[in-house]
Amino acid sequence: MNSNIILSSIFILSIFFWISCNTEKQHNIVEIEFPKETTTGNLPIVKKEKSLSEKIEIIKANFKRINTIGYWTDTKKIEMTGSTEGGEAEFYFNNTVLEKIVVKHFGEMGKTVSEFYIQDEQLSFVFEKRYNYNRPIYWDAKSMEENGDDQVFDIDKSEIIEDRSYFENDILIQHIHDKHVKIHFEDSYLEKEGKRLPLEFERLKKLVE
Question: Does residue 61 fall inside a structural domain?
């Protein structure tokens, strides 16, 4: 009888001890909260617009890069019409990529040389050089004497007019006419040049496609 009472007491004490231990462990549990992921949605990425001078520098760097190419993998020359003395267009390829087009138109009283520079398959820069001869190309010493003139044809005496046109995404962003920046001239002139040159460029490209 006494032994049963002792065993029962031990059993009851064991249960209380087990309960107290588990309660203490639960009090020592620390719950760690991690920060939840947050979303900002599809916000647009705003790129800083390049200044005009920065755009011009990029175009000039491409011009310099093309003109330092020492070996062209392929060139094609095509005869051109539209001028009294004929003309030609030469296409320059670097690893099948068209980089540059040079067009020459010849006449009795002058010639025009137009260089088209390409970047990322788009028109980047056009350099036009017009020569106004002092006399017709056939004007020799005999012509001078017969006509009481004092000059013969001399290409070194030609008046030379240069135009530089800078493009970005087929839009004319700056035009320099004979060393004068065309930013205070008629918008109609710039609009005309901005349409003429890209159209001519596209027409030329089709000749070698």
Answer: yes
Its pTM stands at 0.73
Number of domains present in the structure of the chain: 1
Rounded CA-CA distance 123/166 in Å is 9
According to the model, what pLDDT value does residue 84 have? 80
Give how far Cα 127 sits from Cα of 13, 37, 64, 156, Å: 103, 56, 13, 20
- Listed as ranges, residues in the chain with pLDDT below 50 are 2, 23-35, 37-40
- Domain assignment of residue 135, yes or no: yes
Nearest 5°: the CA angle 59, 65, 70 is 150
C-alpha 165/C-alpha 89 separation (Å) is: 19
Q: Domain range for residue 182?
A: 52-206
Q: Which amino acid is at 199?
A: L
Question: Which residue, among 88, 111, 82, has the nearest Cα to 101 in the 3D structure?
Answer: 88
